[in-house]
Write a structure and sequence with these properties.
There is one protein chain. The chain is α/β, with parallel strands linked by helices. The protein has one domain: UDP-N-acetylmuramoyl-L-alanine:D-glutamate ligase. Helices cover 28% and strands 21% of the residues. β6 and β7 form a beta hairpin. It is globular.
């Protein structure tokens, strides 16, 4: 069983709707009207959970941004998925440069290798993964000369909807790393 700690926010949380076309392409619509920069997770809750954990995967939300220093203080390793960050939006920087493992999609990056190197140079990441859909992904680990290309596995049938593919990739990558797999 996995314990759940509910922390309701007075205004609710962000909402997203994905519209998927017949060709499998999607359009994601986000409603940020319920999300505020002042949103916080209770400090005591974060400290308690961090004290019982070795790793935290944080979403790129205001409450998680405020939790990052507490997680680092507790010695918990942190991972994040920057999703379709363009490598320039300052909102993502605290997550990009403050996490030990960083995932990002190549979809909005002009130069994925330069962005991966930038995350390494400015941050604390031991590894950066850039996912590239059907092209596979790229892994840059600290001390490596450059990113390693990891080709995608051919699907056994047609891809009808890629929603959740990045989350599944992140879960598999983190499971491997946190159970001792090397880069």
């Amino acid at each position: 069983a996995i314990d759940l700690t509910a922390v309701p926010l007075p205004g609710g949380t962000k909402r997203a709707v994905n519209l998927v076309g017949p060709d499998g392409r999607r359009l994601s619509l986000y409603d940020d009207s319920r999300s505020h920069v002042s949103d916080r997770l209770p400090e005591e809750t974060v400290r308690t959970l961090a004290g019982a954990s070795t790793h935290a995967h944080v979403s790129i939300t205001h409450p998680c941004a405020h939790a990052l220093p507490l997680l680092r203080e507790a010695g918990v390793t942190v991972s994040t998925d920057l999703h379709d960050w363009d490598g320039e939006n300052p909102y993502h920087e605290e997550f990009a440069y403050g996490s030990d493992l960083v995932l990002v999609s190549t979809a909005a990056l002009a130069d994925h290798e330069a962005t991966m190197r930038q995350i390494m140079e400015r941050g604390r990441a031991e590894a950066v993964v850039a996912t590239a859909g059907a092209e596979g992904s790229y892994l840059l680990s600290r001390g490596a000369d450059g990113p390693v290309h990891i080709p995608a596995v051919a699907p056994p049938g047609p891809v009808v909807d890629s929603n959740g593919a990045g989350d599944a990739y992140a879960a598999g990558f983190l499971f491997g790393r946190l159970t001792g797999a090397s880069f």
